[in-house]
């Protein structure tokens, strides 16, 4: 195992890691930054091999737990330099650069598709939680429409607990998304706070796409109008609406329950 020592914040790889973590939505996600031993291990478990691994000097023993192939570039850096490149307040002593798996529509369009479509989800913690719930309740994939935070945001990746490496996630325009859903015969269901069919009265055993809007204003009227039907989660308490991640999780659970997956 050959480890190269890097002593400068201006090193090209250190700058690449900093850019990947601070601006995860700057491009198509061809290179993403991973923070912490857990995320790097989750990526490896999903057959996503990092191109470069950064280890804080004095913590080189952690590399032995990862069983990295010889092709991975290993860089040992002073802890303060690694801390300058990552986004967490209490940096972990390991980070990595990786090329993620690229998904396409056939990966999420299945005979019994259960798809989550997200429009304008701004909070990376909410996105990561939705991804985690989607995998837990048997969704075939997630589609992120414009205005939704990048799934490679470090906070979103941590909240997903590794799901981001395993579950098919696509970024698409509104037009592309609804064209694909209609062509595949998948009903699109707008999640609404009011004026919609109560969740318990809706048949979710057929192929479905659950369309979730932003945390603040929900789905736009234009997007809701494109959906085939509207569903709502009845709330007996005096609240105006649910958190987007909570609402998505409830909808996904009900779909899994109706399909016999949550017994």
Describe the structure concisely for a colleague.
With 263 residues, this protein is an alpha/beta fold. Helix content is 31%, strand content 19%. It has helices spanning 12-22, 37-45, 79-85, 124-136, 154-160, 163-166, 174-183, 221-226, 244-258; strands spanning 4-5, 32-35, 50-56, 73-77, 94-98, 114-118, 141-144, 169-171, 187-191, 197-198, 208-212, 229-232.
Please name the CATH topology of the largest domain. Answer: Alpha/beta knot
CATH fourth-tier homologous superfamily of the largest domain = SPOUT methyltransferase, trefoil knot domain
* Number of helical stretches of at least 4 residues: 9
What is the string of helix and strand elements?
A: EHEHEEHEEHEHHEHEEEHEH
Radius of gyration: 20 Å
How would you explain this protein's 3D organization?
The chain has 263 residues and is of the alpha/beta class. The protein contains nine helices and twelve strands. It has helices spanning 12-22, 37-45, 79-85, 124-136, 154-160, 163-166, 174-183, 221-226, 244-258, and strands at 4-5, 32-35, 50-56, 73-77, 94-98, 114-118, 141-144, 169-171, 187-191, 197-198, 208-212, 229-232. α4 runs parallel beside α5 (154-160). The mean pLDDT is 92.
